Amino acid sequence: MFSPLTHLKQSSLLRRGLYGLMATLMAITIGLATPTPSHASIFDLIFQGIRYVQLGNMSDRDEVNLGAQIDRQLKAQQGVRIYNRNASINSYINEIGQRLAATSDRPDLPYTFQVVDNNSVNAFATAGGFVYIQTGLIRAAENEAELAGVMAHEIGHITGRHALQQMRQRALASGVAGSLGVRQEALVGLGVQLALHLPNSREAEHDADRRGFHNMGRAGYDTTGFISFMRKLEGRNTAEFLSTHPNPGNRVNNLQAMHSAGTFASNAGVGTDAAAYRNRIRGL
Fold first, then answer.
1. Residue 17 and residue 83 in one domain
2. Would you say the pTM of this structure is higher than 0.85?
3. 216-269, pLDDT tens digit by residue?
4. Range of the domain at 28
5. I want to staple 128 with a disulfide (CB 3.0 to 4.6 A). Which of 64, 73, 120, 155 is the partner?
6. Is residue 125 domain-shared with residue 177, that is, in the same domain?
């Protein structure tokens, strides 16, 4: 038998149940959209594509894994050839890189320094500590301090997490970011494009310059090496480098201002022996 009172109580209970369910669903949705660092890895295992919302607080381990996937893609599909004709060259570049990494803003990251067999004057970096120095740039440098300045700049992009920031911006702009985030393969594709074809923002370049300048100074290098190489770029046809590293003129002025502060004056002359440098890269 239908009872109005019973029906009213049931309706009230049903409404309360629906409200509770809606509140729970909203809480879950918010939790997925803004995972805390402590739960991010768990969500990542459960939900494909959640990595977009983790880009701002990605763990070092996840960043290194992402960088390793980008590295494989660069070599397998983008024609990035690692130089392998002279092991001493690779060893020398790694020696400089690890010296700089030890005094960087993220010294605990496992950096990987690789020489790319390409005559263009260029260098680039991806997420997770992967740095690529092209043979053309190694030859173009006058001394170790000049090369160290460029390498410190690339390390600065990594310590500043610029690639991760650009991935997030590009994901939003291109519409590949869904309600849960970006699929992992889409992130890798974005990382490849950023490394090879898309310019860094002026803000990122200036930040990498600042970080790189102080890093090479802490590593003991003469910071004028960074300045002299940037001046060299102004007078050369280095289209590939400038396509991803814009505005060298203004950057030289900023570097000169930092050098004039005299913080690393005691490093004068360190790494500027051109003959010693030529001997180290002999056979390249």
1. no
2. no
3. 999 999 999 999 999 988 766 555 555 555 566 688 999 999 999 999 999 999
4. 1-33
5. 64
6. yes
Read off the pLDDT of each residue in 111-123 and give the average, rounded to a whole number. 97
Closest C-alpha among 58, 228, 273 to residue 50? 58
The answer to whether residues 98 and 181 belong to one domain is yes
Q: Are residue 96 and residue 188 in the same domain, yes or no?
A: yes
Which of 84, 127, 76, 128 has its CA nearest to residue 284? 84
